[in-house]
Amino acid sequence: MNAFLGALSGKMAERWLALLAIPGLVYLVALATAVTLGQRHWYDTGRLRTRLDSLAEAPGAHSPGALAVAAVAVLAGAALTGTAAQGLGALIERTWLMAPRGPLTRLLAARRLRQWRTADADYRTALVAAGRARLSGRGDADALTDEAEARYAERNRIALVRPRHPFWTGDRVAAPDQRVWRAYRLDLSTAWPHLWLLAPDSTRTELGTARGALSTAARLSAWGVAYLLLAVWWWPAAFVGVASALTGLSRSRTAAASFAELAEALADLHGRDLATAVGLECEGRITAEVGDSVTRLLSKPD
User: Fold this and answer.
1) Model pTM?
2) What dihedral angle (degrees, nearest 10) is formed by the CA atoms of 208, 214, 217, 223?
């Protein structure tokens, strides 16, 4: 038990350093630099050296007690800064995944839906043209097929299914619900806890890693926002802010796609196991009839 508690405390300390203390400490250094230099002296490293020399010559700089108090204060400030960034990251993540509620988000969701419908209509038109060319044996059939495939990819870049959210990430994470329902008549939201219990540990680990990557990307975007705020006092911080925000946004799309694909694969691979576990007969792959029965059974209607 002592060894277990020691290992657990070590992992918690490492996580605390990685998520809160180190990023917060770096931000405090950037904040001190911004306050010292300002906009007019943004490149003046001599000004920084002068400030550091004055701190080194202060009476308390040679007192062990004062240094210890200062170190604790800096670590506490770093932890508080990291906690604030973590909270902002959680807010950003909820925003990415939120359903349309206010006028602005409804406007964004409607805009995405219009784009998707236009792309879908273009794809279906190109598909019909390619099919007719193929049936009639025309020489441009291959070119029209390539055009239809390009239109299909363009539509899917907007959303795999009919968009319902103001942001791409929300639609991508929610897409497995619609796709699994259309394929198996299985309500993935209702079946998810049961599928999770049936999944092997390796699958749970992969899902947890993908979901955690989305939260990490949101925190990175939050740090980007924090550095953009520093640009008010020291404009070079804007470069770090923009780079962090854009990197977080890019990673969020990758993480959302990975999590959605794994969630859909979980239903594909273990849907039959779920039907069998609740007492339904399922020979071969799960069918729409079996999926509908599983959904009605798990939803426990009155």
Assistant:
1) 0.82
2) -90
Residues 142 and 182 in one domain: no
User: What are the start-end ranges of the H helices in 231-302?
Assistant: 237-277, 288-299
Q: What are phi and psi of 160, to 5 degrees?
A: -75, -30
Range of the domain at 117: 102-166
Burial 134-148, CB ≥16 within 10 A → b, else e? eeeeeeebeebbebb
C-alpha to C-alpha distance for 301 and 290, rounded to whole angstroms: 17
Q: Which residue has the higher pLDDT, 90 or 71?
A: 90
pLDDT of residue 3: 43
Number of domains observed in the structure of the chain: 2
Boundary (domain end) residue, out of 112, 139, 166: 166
Q: Is 205 exposed, middle or buried (0-12, 13-18, 19+ CB in 10 A)?
A: exposed
Task: Count other C-beta atoms under 10 Å from residue 1's C-beta.
Answer: 5
**Cα–Cα distance measured from residue 121 to residue 126, given in angstroms and rounded to the nearest whole number:** 9
Q: Calculate mean pLDDT across residues 185-195.
A: 92
Contact 272/263 with Cβ under 8 angstroms? no
Using CA atoms, how far residue 201 sits from 197, 205, 266, in Å, is 9, 6, 12
Q: What is the rounded distance in angstroms from the CA atom of residue 216 to the CA atom of residue 108? A: 25
- CA dist 8 to 2, 3, 83, 86, 213, Å? 10, 9, 21, 22, 22
CA separation for the pair 262, 214 (Å, rounded): 14
